[in-house]
Amino acid sequence: MSPPRLPRWLGLAGLLPQLAALAVLLSGDTAHHFQALTLGYAYAALILSFLGGLWWGLAARAEAPPAWLWVAAVVPSLVALASAIPWSEGKAWPGPSLVVLGLALIAALAVDWRLARGGLAPPWWLSLRVPLSLGLGLSTLAIAALA
Fold it and tell me: How far apart are CA 49 and CA 90, in angstroms?
């Protein structure tokens, strides 16, 4: 089942900031290299946290949500925050942190799959979430490779 038109287009538009950061890096623009890395990192962390908020909202609207969903809803924000620790300590950054975020965005599909399978998400959920998670996760990993 296809997602409604507005969420589909807004979701796809949500890939544009990451693709723009990737385009700057691929262009070889050394003057904006670090800006593209940091914005790519920040956007991936922001959207990972946003996913947790989506899951929290689905749990909150459910009659009797499973306990695992409440936990899963908090994990993305904690992963996003933890990915900033190397930067705060002056260690290797942002490459390794971008890898963590890219993989977490792709791994989030496991939660989305359980939500859909358990009837906790709309019937069109996976048809929206799969391209968005893969698109953002893979573009984040590509940015990490160019860090």
Answer: 23
